[in-house]
Design goal:
This protein is of the alpha/beta class and 559 residues long. It has three domains: 4-136, Protein tyrosine phosphatase superfamily (Protein-Tyrosine Phosphatase, Chain A, Alpha-Beta Complex); 149-253 and 408-553, FAD/NAD(P)-binding domain, CATH 3.50.50.60; 257-405, FAD/NAD(P)-binding domain (3-Layer(bba) Sandwich). Helices cover 27% and strands 22% of the residues. Strands 6, 7, 10, 11, 12, 13 and 24 form a seven-stranded mixed beta sheet that branches. Strands 1-2-5-3-4 form a five-stranded mixed beta sheet, sandwiched between helices. The chain is globular.
Length: 559
């Protein structure tokens, strides 16, 4: 038998035989639902045979036949009723299991979020994206789609979304664009490290979304539930449907706070903080100021993550404060990194190591945070050194700065746009989807092997805009993205190691070395981060002014 578990109550499978029923009983199943009409296949046992075997083995069976490709709303209701009344767990079967999985998905539409339904069926081996619109509509077939239609639809109004909409408007002012995002506030997230270090005020990193949506762009204030790329459609929560000629996907990524046991319950108290949240960055600075002695832990989860340098930036700025106030010798600093290197581009490591030594910080590589006990002030790590058996260690702390595990958003991971790891599958040069020619993506959600930083989005937005406009004119891609990303590593108040690099770790400096040598800490780089980058973000990048971000021409090799 080929059994696919959906949840604790239900599993589905292809056609079973009467001889399989005894094995099902032995495995603990108590109910069977047959969704395959008798006589559909020449070698198919009848339901009467299955029912007789079920009775002999103490199972209850129901016959709910569904014609392939014709799952009616009433069928889903009957399936839900059968699940409610049959003893469980239940096995449902048809020819391949797809009809049974579809019936479950539709029957759960009002009880579970759409991404959860799609994720569970996908994990079981069944793609329900084709009925996503019905699931979003409460399991009912929509009678009136009420589709809105735009030439370009942008999913996500973060750094990448607003920047690409502005860049498109700069090139084609009359272009009909809609941006979909449910958020009221837009955040300058690169500033949160500085908030946690006592340099910026949190309020300076937030503006209302409405004030930033480019003029002439329609803002659809809603959450995306699913994609239907075969129908050129985006499904919103509540089953509203937005159609497009071209789609740009840039909703960012998901911070999986629940991925660490006990973390959600501990955040913002008991010395547990994170600069990855707007409301917690001020708490980081509060803890740094208050701390006099004890252990300070700074964690980094497995890659990929947003701004890979941010976890250690928090450590450097905290340690610098303790150094300046004469407390450093009484504080035991640990950088607990799930990976095996301090920074992924080796050219910047020597300068960073000088500060690791200055602050007497311990580098605990291959340490992945798995649990936090806030009241006990204890952290648990899974330690996985290469070619060694995994083990767990605990560390006590006075303060812990946590970088959470990170994934693509749920509605992306379960969609046809995703690769096997859940990220939007794009060509790394043109940022066009590898399977759907009228879809592009940028920012943290793509599987392009670049650093997930705002600086990357600043370079990607014009590239996507150029290529979308070229596509509208019937031309092939004209611009390419070289993987540029920037990570201003704040090693102390007043000095930064300005890491700038592209695909493969190739250095991509924006300034001559006499002005800013990115491989060593400089005051000039600090002034860039503190004084220049915020206005560049708010007044240039988000307004389609591509200062130092003009797209590169596509080379023959990139094609």
């Amino acid at each position: 038998m080929d059994i696919h578990t959906i949840d604790d109550r239900l599993a589905v499978s292809p056609q079973i035989t009467a001889a399989d029923v005894a094995a099902l009983a032995a495995e603990g199943y108590r109910g069977i639902i047959c969704n395959r009409p008798d006589g559909e296949g020449a070698d198919q046992p009848s339901f009467e045979e299955i029912e007789r075997a079920a009775s002999e083995n103490g199972l209850e069976a129901r016959y709910l036949p569904v014609t392939t490709g014709m799952v009616r709303d009433a069928d889903a209701e009957a399936f839900a009723e059968a699940l409610r009344t049959l003893p469980g767990p239940v096995l449902a079967y048809c020819r391949s299991g797809t009809r049974s999985a579809t019936l479950w998905a539709l029957s759960e539409a009002t009880a579970r979020p759409l991404p959860d339904i799609l994720a569970r069926t996908k994990a079981a081996g069944y793609d329900m994206s084709g009925v996503a619109r019905r699931i979003a509509n409460g399991g009912k077939t929509p009678t009136d789609t009420g589709d809105a239609h735009y030439k370009v639809v942008v999913v996500g109004a973060g750094a990448g979304g607003i920047a690409v909409a502005a860049s498109l408007k700069a090139r084609k002012p009359g272009l009909e664009i809609a941006v979909i995002d449910p958020a009221d506030i837009h955040y300058y997230q690169p500033g949160w490290t500085m908030v946690g270090g006592g340099i910026f005020e949190a309020s300076d990193t937030a503006k209302t979304m409405g004030s930033l949506i480019p003029s002439g762009v329609t803002w659809i204030k809603a959450a995306v539930a699913a994609f239907e790329p075969q129908s050129d459609a985006v499904i919103l929560d509540g089953c509203r449907v937005v159609k497009y000629d071209r789609l740009i996907v840039c909703p960012g990524l998901k911070l999986d706070w629940h991925g660490v046991e006990g973390l959600v319950e501990s955040l913002g108290r008991n010395g547990v903080t994170s600069n990855y949240r707007y409301d917690l960055a001020p708490y980081t600075w509060q803890l740094v100021q208050q701390m006099r002695s004890g252990a300070a832990l700074f964690t980094q989860p497995p890659m990929p993550i947003k701004c890979a340098g941010a976890p250690q930036k928090a450590m450097y700025l905290s340690a610098d404060h303790w150094h300046r106030t004469g407390r450093l010798s009484d504080i035991d600093i640990h950088f607990c990194n799930a990976g095996g290197v301090l920074f992924g581009v080796k050219d910047y490591v020597p300068a960073l190591m000088e500060y690791v030594k200055k602050y007497d910080a311990s580098l605990d590589f291959f340490h992945n945070l798995v649990a936090v006990d806030g009241p006990a002030k204890r952290a648990t790590f899974e330690v996985k050194h290469p070619e060694e058996a995994p083990r767990q260690v605990t560390m006590d702390f006075e303060m812990i700065h946590v970088c959470p595990p990170q994934t693509a958003p749920d509605f992306v991971r379960v969609s046809p746009l995703a690769d096997v790891a859940g990220w939007v599958d794009v060509d790394q040069a043109t940022l066009r989807h590898k399977r759907f020619d009228n879809i592009w993506a940028l920012g943290d959600v793509t599987n392009a092997p670049n650093a997930k930083t705002a600086a990357a989005a600043r370079k990607q937005a014009p590239t996507v805009a150029e290529n979308v406009i070229a596509d509208m004119r019937g031309r092939s891609a004209v611009a390419q993205y070289d993987g540029y990303g920037s990570c201003p590593l704040t090693v102390e108040r007043g000095k930064i190691v300005l890491a700038e690099f592209g695909y493969g770790g190739a250095l991509k400096p924006s300034f001559p070395t006499w002005l800013v040598d990115g491989t060593r800490p400089t005051r000039a780089a600090w002034l860039l981060k503190e004084r220049m980058l915020p206005p560049i973000y708010w007044k240039a990048m988000l307004r389609g002014r591509e200062w130092m971000a003009k797209p590169a021409r596509l080379t023959a090799a990139a094609e």
